[in-house]
Amino acid sequence: MSTAIYPGSFDPVTYGHIDIIKRASTIFDKVIVAVLDNPRKKALFLVPERVKMLEEVTKDIPNVEIDSFSGLLIDYARSKDVNIAVRGLRAMTDFDYELHMAQTNFLISGGKLETVFLTTDLAYSYLCSSTVREIASFNGDVSQSVPESVAKLLKSKYGY
Ligand code: COA
Fold first, then answer.
1. What are the extents of the domains in the chain?
2. Which of 27, 40, 127, 133 could disulfide-pair with 16, CB 3.0 to 4.6 Å?
3. Which residues are catalytic, by number?
């Protein structure tokens, strides 16, 4: 059985992430979407909140599981006995960072953790979670970027 991990911050999950999750779920038997508890990023949503919103937006995809982790991705992947990570590439600007991360993970895992890249759907290549947060913080319309359930959570986080 082929299993892949799709790691990320998902603060919040956007249509861009959902596109990657759906496509990965057609390639691998199982996809574990893993929310990183990253002390270096000041998050809007707590990890359990991000897990819950991901569960909601992926509830119709049977081979997707939502989890969270902290620490190194290679250690989490080892604990799950998985050797494939999936990442989305939106534009050239993502490339340097992703290449560096993929090569580092390959090296420090002793050649065990491979990274598979999926190119983000053109319709979502402009999207990122911080822009969504900024628009939502001013009560702007984020309906083109996130599902309704996530838009509602953003509204209540920002007190609208
Ligand atoms: N569609 C829309 N947006 C996307 C996207 C897509 N397909 N792919 C990425 N993004 C956006 C995210 O929304 C996020 O936006 P933001 O910065 O505005 O909030 C941004 O791109 C970063 O993406 P994300 O997937 O959340 O990556 P990250 O840099 O926060 O985390 C990890 C990447 C989790 C894979 C990495 O940090 C990790 O593995 N950390 C664990 C520690 C470790 O192992 N380190 C060694 C590796 S070098």
1. 3-122
2. 127
3. 17, 41, 90, 129
Q: Which of 36, 82, 121 gets mutated to test ligand 1 (max ligand atoms within 8 A of its CB)? A: 36
Other Cβ atoms less than 10 A from the Cβ of 13: the count is: 27
pLDDT by position in tens, the chain (length 160) = 899 999 999 999 999 999 999 999 999 999 999 999 998 889 999 999 999 999 999 999 999 999 999 999 999 999 999 999 999 998 888 899 999 999 999 999 999 999 999 998 999 989 999 999 999 999 999 999 999 999 999 999 999 8
**Does CATH place domain 3-122 in 3.40.50.620?**
yes
Statement: the pTM of the whole predicted model exceeds 0.85: yes
* Token code pair at residue 160: 């609208």
Q: Can you tell me which atom of ligand 1 is nearest the CA of 131?
A: 18
H or E segment and range at residue 36: strand 30-36
Q: Is 88 in the pocket of ligand 1 (CB under 6 A)?
A: yes
User: Does the C-beta of 73 come closer than 6 Å to ligand 1?
Assistant: yes
- Structure tokens, 91: 């534009």
Q: Does residue 119 have its Cβ closer than 6 Å to ligand 1?
A: no
Assigned token pair, 101: 């991360």
Distance between the two ends of the chain, CA-based, in angstroms? 45
